[in-house]
Each structure stands twice: as C-alpha cells, then as structure tokens.
Amino acid sequence: MKARIERNLTRSVGVGDVRIGAGAPVVVQSMTATRTVDVDATVAQLEQLAAAGARLERVAIDSRKEVEALAEVRRQTSVPLVVDLQENYPLAAEVAPLVDKVRYNPGHLHHLEKGKTAEQKVAFLVSVAREHDLALRVGVNCGSVAPDFLERYEDPMEALVESALFHCKLLEELGFERFCVSLKDSDPGKVIEANRIFAERKPEVPLHLGVTEAGLLPDGVIKTRIAFEQLISQGIGDTIRVSLTLPNARKHEEVEAGHQILADIAAGRFRSVPDFGTDRLNIISCPSCSRVENERFVELAEEVKTMTAYAEQHALTIAVMGCRVNGPGETDDADLGLWCGPSHVNLKRRSESLGAFGYDEILGKLREELDRLLEERSLAGS
C-alpha cells in the first residue's frame, strides 16, 4: 500500500521517470553494497532492491574501472540509477550517459583540482547535468562538511546547513533548479534540527531524508523512525533512505523498513522511542555499501555491539565505519571510533588516532580503550 502523506509543496524534480517533490508520493530509495566492478552481483542487488520497492537506486563510483563496470550494469538493468561521485567529481562527465541523477558531496569537492573554486566545480556539474538531462543531489554529511565552512562557523550544525544553502545558491545562480538536498547526521535529533532549519529557509527545495550510519537492527530503524516521524509528519521530506548495516543478502530490508515507516506515519501509528545518545551506549555504524573495502565490516559491527553490551548504561558513542571516504571524519565526534580498511581497522578516541590493528585483534584493543574510558569517567565522577 502506498502511503499518502501531506507535505510541504516543494518544486518537482524529475529523475528518469520518477518525480520527487510537488506532492508526489514519498520516494523510497536505497544503495548497492556490492563492489561496483562485480557487475553480476551489482545487477542482482539492484533488482533485489527494486523488487522490495526501491524507486531509485544509488551506486558508488570512484574510478574509471568502476565507470566501465557501470556501463555494463546499465546495459543489463533499466532501474533508475543515481551515481555517488565520492571524492572524484570529474567523473561526472563519464558516468552521466549511464545514470539519471548525480549525487555530490560539497565536502569532497576540495580533494581534486585544488586550483579550481567550488563555484567552478559546481558549474561543471551543472553543465554535465544539463547536457545529459540529469538531476543533482547536494548531499551534505555531518562528518564531511567542507573545511571552509567548519572554519567559518563555530557550530557544526550551522556549518552543515550553511554549506547546503550555499550550494543551493550556486545552483540557482546558474539557473539550475533540478536538484534536491540532503542533510544527514548519525544523531536523529540533529537530522531533525538541520532539516527543519533548512526547510524554513528553502521551503521550495525537495529534501532527501536519512539518518546516516543508523547502524544495526533494531536500533538503526528506531533512530531513523525518530527522525522520519517528526519530519514527515510536519510536511518535511520528499524521498527517504533507511541506512542499515546489513549483509548483502538482506540489503532489501532497508527498503522494506522505509515503506513500513511511511505506512505507519500515514496511518497515524507513532511509536514511543528512546532518546539515543543521552543516557545509554550509542553504537553507530554506516550502511554497507560499495565503498566498503572489506566485507568483514558488517560482522565486525555486530561483534562490537555484542562485546560492548556490558557498557550499555553508559552515555558513550562508539562508531564503526566501513570505508576511508566517511570513516576518518565521521568518527571524530565518537568517544571511540573504528574505520575499516582492506586489511586493518583504524582505532580512534575522538579525533586522536590510536593505531591500526588487524581484524582479528581490533575487538581486544577496543575493549581495552573502552575499559580505560569507563575507568576515567568513574574516577571523574567520584
């Protein structure tokens, strides 16, 4: 059953044959977790997600080898595709003929072609989108806000929102309005705050909602439900993604969870939920996606949750990130953070690096640091 939910009347953005905004039904989307170069697995997962009800599906691209694979993926499937450019925005011109929408992160534009301004890079993306009849998504994430905005604004939430607003201004000054925006954080409260502020300032721009690194079940769905219930019920949100840490075979559960949340909101079924991050252990982990360099990441996230259960009553955040793109920045605010590489896991205490350890030894190292942190807090409390 499709949920009918009254929302803010944003402008309409076409993505292939899918309409976002302007009163169209809320669009549920997801992202592949397979390696993009594994064409058969990627096509199979795209079809799996589509069968579960995903109207848009995102694939990550970070190299020309992946672009070549995407061409074959496109040949084998007709699902509406969104490409995530990661840190390699110049690849937009090469992937544009293969997809319906391009997502770029303003916080990653500075990585390449450092002699060019953000304005020049956005102008390039707009020219590509126009030439190939594409939509754009401005995707701003808490852990990868552009450095100049973090320097300019003392409050990270203000930096997040202002970065999104700045890119809206750039796009609109170029006469381009076929875009939507996402403002994501792993804290549902911050997601609510950021999207409310943005919707007040730019009510005409369609919003893509999500709690990034929502993590494992059942907490990941609970966190996402907190944000979606409060935003969508107030008319905010035109497309959604539930980001869960799941094995590839269960990736479709993201889509099913999204549809269930929408149906519950439409029917007035709102649930009482805990207040994450204030008086209990909060484990955040990113959704498994094609950026993950070692599939052991999902299993590790589960092991972290089990191992740390003894600290459940302590107000701590532990972050488990699956890749080098989001891992370094999006573990900075966690009390303890792990970001996973191909053969080692990087352990951090907030922004301080504690070293890189093998997958077979990281749990022991994490427990040592967790015990040390709990002891420090106990001594400080007494």
Estimate what percentage of residues fall within beta strands. 15-25%
CATH fold title of the largest domain: TIM Barrel
Question: Strand arrangement, largest sheet?
Answer: 3-4-5-6-7-8-9-10
Annotated CATH architecture of the largest domain = Alpha-Beta Barrel
Total domain count: 2
Q: Could you give the count of β-strands?
A: 15
Q: Which sequence of SSEs, written as H and E, runs from N to C?
A: EEEHEHEHEHEHHEHEHEHEHEHEEEH
**Name of the CATH first level of the largest domain:** Alpha Beta
- What is the name of the CATH superfamily of the largest domain? Dihydropteroate synthase-like
Uncertain residue segments: none
Evaluate the radius of gyration.
Answer: 20 Å
**Percent of residues in helices:** 25-40%
Distance between the termini: 55 Å
Mean pLDDT: 91
Note the overall shape: globular
Class from secondary-structure proportions: alpha/beta
**Largest β sheet strand count, sense and barrel closure:** 8 strands, parallel, barrel
Total helices: the number is 12
Short overview:
This protein is of the alpha/beta class. The chain folds into 2 domains: 254 residues, Alpha-Beta Barrel (TIM Barrel), CATH 3.20.20.20; 100 residues, Sulfite Reductase Hemoprotein, domain 1 (2-Layer Sandwich).
